[in-house]
Each structure stands twice: as C-alpha cells, then as structure tokens.
Amino acid sequence: MKKVLVVEDSATTRAMIISIVETLPAVECTDAEDGLAALKALPNDRFDAILTDINMPGLTGLELISFVRSHPSYREIPIIVISTEKAQTDKDRGFALGASDYVTKPFAPMDLQRVVRQHLGI
Amino acid sequence: MDERDLLRQFVDEAEDLVESLHSDLLILSRDPVGGLRPDVLNRVFRSAHSLKGVAGMAGVPSVQRAAHKFEDLLDDVRMGRVRPGPTTLDGCGRVADELGRMIAAVADGADAAAIERDADAVESLVAELRSGAAGAPEAATEAVIDLDEKIRRTFTEYEEHRLQENLNARRPVYELRVAFDLMSFDVGFRGLLERLGAAGEVIGTLPAAGGDDPSRIGFRIIAATNEPQESIDSLIGTLGGTASLISHYPEPIVEPPPEFPADGAGASTAVSVRVDMGAVDDLVYLSRGLALDVAGLAASAEELAVQVGMPSRELFDLKQRARSIERGFSDLEERLVEMRLVPIGQVYGRARRLVGRLAAELGREVDFVTSGEDVRLDKAIVDRISEPIAHLLRNAVDHGIESPDVRRAAEKSATGRIELIAEPRGNRVALIVRDDGAGIDVGAVRRAANAQGLAADESIEAIFAPGVSTAGAVTEVSGRGVGLDAVAAVVAALGGTIAVETERGKGTTFVILLPTTLVMLSVFLVEAAGGLYAIDVNQIGELASLDATYVERAVQATPADCGHVVEWRGESVRLYRLAELVGSDAPSKSSSGVVQCVTVRIWDRDVALSVDRLVGEREAIVKTVGRYMPVLKGVNGAIDIEGGRIALLLDIPGLIAEHRRLWTAAGAGGS
What we know:
The structure holds two protein chains of two kinds. Chain A has five helices and five strands, in the order βαβαβαβαβα. Chain A is an alpha/beta fold. Chain B is an alpha+beta fold.
C-alpha cells in the first residue's frame, strides 16, 4: 500500500484530489487542511508522496517543502505541487526549494494520476 | 466522487467563501481607506482565490471566470499595485453579492447561459473598480535586513511584498526562534501566531526539525511589530524561545506626518488599538473591586471619626471625598463598559443576504428595510442575538409574506415589506422585526397551546412557550410556532423580553427588548436559603407580601413542578419557592407571618418567587461564571457585593425550565 499526504485548504478540492488519487490501485491518502496539519501528520506515517497546495494560511506550501527537504526522515519524499496557473513565481520558488513536480489547477484527473503514478513508481 | 455530491460540496464551500468575503469586507470597512489591515485583505484575496480554484475543480466555469477576475483585482490591491479608493470596498461587496447570487443560481440548476451573463456583469464591475482605483505610490527603503537566505527563499511573492512594506514603514522586524513538543505544537504555535498578529504582522514561518531532540519541532518566525522589544522578548521567553531584531534603519526614525484624505483637511487623527474583550472586563471588575474597597474604607473611617469625635465639618469633608472617589470609579466603569459596545448594524448585512436569498428561493417579492444600524449593544449580545433575528426573518419571509398572487388577490401590493429596526428605549434597546404579511392565526395558536395542556389564554404570546412548537401545531399555525421558544429562550437568557402583535391579513411585529450590556445592570437582591441572589430589575413586576399560612396551604395543595397556584389580585399566579429552584430544601423563614415575594414576567404571565428577605436594588457589575465553573443552568453571572459577599444573577425562565426538567426526570426515574 502506498501512502500519499494531500495538503490542501479547500475541502472540495481536497476531496476531489483524494478521490482521483485513490482510484489508483493500492494507494491510500491522508488529508491535511493546511501546512501545520501536514507537520502533525508527517510523523504518523511513512509517506510515499506529498501533494501540496502553495497558497495556504498558517504555513504555506513553500515553507512545508523547505521543512520536508531539510528533515532527515522526510527529505526523500517526492513532493508534487498542485496550484493555480497564476503563481508562476511561487512555482519557480517551489522548484528551487526541491519540489519534485507540478500540476496546474484545474487539472484533468488523468494528468494528476499520471504524475502521481510516476513518482510512486507504480 | 458522484457529480451531484461534488456540486453540493462545491455549493457549500462556495457559500462559506462568499460569507467570509462579506464578513472580511465588513471588517475592512472599519479601517481607514489608506490603512486596510493586510492580514484581512489577504484573507479576502484568499477567499476569491479559493473560490476560483474550487469552481474550476467542480467544473463551474462561470463562477471560475468571475472569481478569477475578482481575484486578480484583489491580488493587485494586496500586492500594493492598485491603491483602493473610497468606493472600492463597497464595490467589492457588490461583487461578493453577485458571486453569492451566481452560486445560488448554480445550486438551483439555473440556466448556464444566464449565469454566464452574471459572470459578464462581475467582470465589468471589476473593470469599473479598477478604473476607480489609483496606481500604487512609489516607495523606497534604505533598510538593511539581516534575514537568513534560507528563510527568504521560502517566502511567497506576497510574503516578500509584506516584508518590503513593513521595511518601508520602518517597522522593527524580528526573527523569533521557538520549539514546541511535536505532538502538540499546533495549539501553542497557532496561539503564538495569533498574539504576534494582534501585535503586528507575521510575515513568514519556517519549521525545522528540532535538532537533536526528535520529539520537538522548531520554528523560525519573521514578524514585524511596533511593540517594544521587551514585550516581544517576554512573549517568546515564556515559550522558551528567543527574539532578535533583524531590521536596521539608517537614520533615526522620524514619524512620518499622518496622511489625511484629500478632503479631510485637519480632520481628527483617529488612532485606535485592538483590545481583547476579556482584558476590558478584567478592568471593569478591578474598578468595581476598588470601588467596593473604597466604600468599605470610607465606612470604617466614618465610624472611627465618630468614635474619636471628629468635628462635623471634617466628617462632612471626609464623606464628600469618599463619594467623589466612588463617582470617579463609576465613571470609569461606565467608559470601560462602553468599550464593549458595537453597532447592531453588524448583523444587518447577514440579515439582508438571508432575506434576499430566501425570498428568491420561495418566489416572494420583498422590500427589506433596515434602520438604526448605529444603535450600539454589547458585543456579546450582538453575537448571540444574530441567530434569533435570522430566525424571525426566515419566518417572516416563509410564513409572513404571501406569494405575489395571493397578495394581489388580497388587494395588497405584490411586493411585501419586512423591516428590521433597532431603536434605543431608555437604558434598553428594542429590536423590531415587522412584516406586512398574512399575520398569525391566534385561534390556532391557542388550540395548539391547549393541545399541549397549557392553560387556555387569549394571548398570542403563548406562542413563545416551550411545547407549543411541536409538529402537530405547526401546520395549523402555518409553521409560525417553530423554534419561537428557542428565540424566546435566548432573549430571556440575555435578560430581555419578547412580545408579538399580529393581525390577520395585515402582518406581524415582533419586539425584542434587550439590555444594552450584560456587564452593568440594575439588579434587585433577595435572600433565599442563606444565599444572596440578584434579579434584573427590568424583569421584576412588583414586590409583594403574602400571608404565610395561605402560602403554606397552597404549597401543600399543588405539586411543585409548575409552581403552586396562589391568588394574587384576583388572578391565579404560579408561585415558586426560590430556595427550591436553587436546589435547597431549607424550610422558608416566615417569622413575621408573611412571605416576601417578587413577581417576574415570563412570556405572557407573571410568576411569583417567594424569598426569605428582600434586600434592595443595586447597580451591579456582572462577572461571567462560565469561565471558572461549568455553566450553571439558570445562572447568568456573579456579582460582588459590599462586605466581600457574592450574589448569583438569576435567569428566572432558565431556572424554572431547569426545575421542571429535573422534576420530570426524577418523576420518570421514580415510577
């Protein structure tokens, strides 16, 4: 079973991402409503990938990426940023901080599944 | 995910987002045009941004397009590229209204082309707002900032902009380092962010592994604040963290001249600070405590002065001086209490949206008229009265205002009228909800009350009694009974009263009379079962003395659950022993052969409370008890009395309801 952490503050978008990702065989998602909730979730499981929004209250996606990449236990986890087309600068910063991939909202379910499969190696 | 589920979830979330757009815009509307609070402005942006995102995901292109245009504008405003003018916020409110209507239309499955036209309308509204706003002023800073590149790289464009703005304003910027326990960090961390936000602005936060301790998580927080460094040090020090100043400004800081709007030549320099309501209350309590101490001190001094034979002139001076200090304290109290007051207009926006939406849903045509938005009430009252008001308005649209056809047939104008009015009445405030609809069938209410075993009464006010609102009665009174007991209970718990007038075919008027504040109150003190109790004087009808033997007989003759029946001025009145209501089985003291009573008006009737002693009236400062003890049913607060005693402030309807509940529960358990 592959574990994916989905970090997104919109409940609808979060539910949608999870329902798309969980249609992949043997993939299970944990949800976090913002960056702080993600920090709380990380020690509870061994995650195989993180999908995160950037623009979130409290702790942004960029701050989350920086934390994960600097943490000895999490630094290898692939991080896929899911954000809108608008945030080009923030997208570049995400890559500079070590994001693994990028999906633009709104996305086709197939595109998200393809990117996630690639990083999970399934 | 099922498509219908998805749509429902979208509508739910979108409605929430529009609601927060409205409330945040309302908050911003209290800021000066040039000084919109950046955190609130950012929330407004985020709401529009999230709305666009969720509409895109749910496949609602019209809302996505409209929200996108709005988001672009708000982004330019928050990033300082566009400077808002005096009408910008108003316009944003109109956009939010429009978005709300679009979402309602989506929920109703309205014609997609029509919703697209609404999106066009939003687009042109936003374009109009842009043209009305000004470009951004040039700003430059010579500040030097000592910021770790590692942190700076994690800044979003917006965070970078906020840093720059704070440097331009020459605000001191700090880097705070603090670590929390990994399992429970979020509570402490969110609390810290809130404190820092209230004292200034949190620009960025970077978490880091807790070094050698894997059970901890560290944070580096970049925050700007004008608070003295000592208070930042002590705030972070209590959490075991450190703060260092990382901004440096080359010249000594010169206060920039205050900016006035162009037309406000020499206008007042309104400076305000945000203060926690609890802190204000503490000051009120403190002031009252000091006033009581002074009164005690003055009494002792007077006693002493008489004992040592002080000349009457000096004695007079002494009393005068003590009185002047007491007056000083009561002025202080009054001003502090005024700080708790907010305009009732805060709830009007929600009321207007509610009426508009419900009228559209139900096919009613309604003119919604409000007045008295400047009338001020205790914030705690405004917060709690908003739901009852919403309830009365829903009833007015749903069951009051008839459909246009019915109205025309009754020779009324097709458009109904609903009014929401606030007006001061002495030291109280009246909130009036009036409709010109069908009115309530009084006979049906009476039949429903009878069916519930309540005393038959001509009065329509039986509609507020608990129990009249059950399903059987609903259809007959066309739903009007639903939840009115809940409305009445909230009003009573706030120390208010509610009354209704109705005429078939003409309409219905509800009048809620509320105290201005919950903190300062005129109370009447009574003694029962050895304890001291306070009752809001506005609820008291009269003070009465009844013959003790007569009362004793009545008590023996009738069960206690609904009060003992006594005759008072030719009418049957329910009498409760206060000692019994507060759960004491001490026998009543009636040495003089009479029982002292106060009558209190509840809904449509008076009830009498027998007490051991009538003490007298006081101007009281009410402390909340909920903070220290579990909430007591029927108790609204505690009052410090001279001599170090405490009186509990009673919510009589709540107390009686609780008494009945316990009685019934005990009866059910016993049999």
